[in-house]
């Protein structure tokens, strides 16, 4: 079955960035920032060696959901959009297929503080609600990952859940978790 992102015309250009589908040739560029301690700290699945990272990166199901963020031809981050079915009662389940998405992002910290992550995520939200016709997007993070939840708020996502010590961090133990969401009718987000 064809992935929904395959239906789009790539790349997508923003004012300063280029978003494109990830490919096997992006292993080295993404490893360069994903192995940094300040990034490794928060990614959902961290690998400790290049070979392990390469193997995980090249999995077909991972590459299908992954986008690359470029600035002037240099890879500065990646985005993830996983499309899911919504929960539904059996009689209407066919109407809930492929209508929601989960967002994720990782940015090279040397490019932080310049609005690149906000610009890239807004472009991905435009794609999700526009070309893909999704009805709802959500994103999760540890409460301690303030940069991530601040980004969710900057792009107009609403905090829907603050859970107490339900999220297990690889080194910090049980931490609070946050869930944010946005509906298509709430987009475009306020500046």
UniProtKB/TrEMBL annotation:
Q: Does the keyword Transferase apply?
A: yes
Pfam families recorded: Acetyltransf_3
Q: Does the keyword Repeat apply?
A: no
Domain N-acetyltransferase, by residue range, is 17-185
Q: Which UniProt keywords apply?
A: Transferase
User: Highest taxon of the source?
Assistant: Bacteria
* GO function terms (MF aspect): acyltransferase activity, transferring groups other than amino-acyl groups
Q: What's the name of the protein?
A: RimJ/RimL family protein N-acetyltransferase
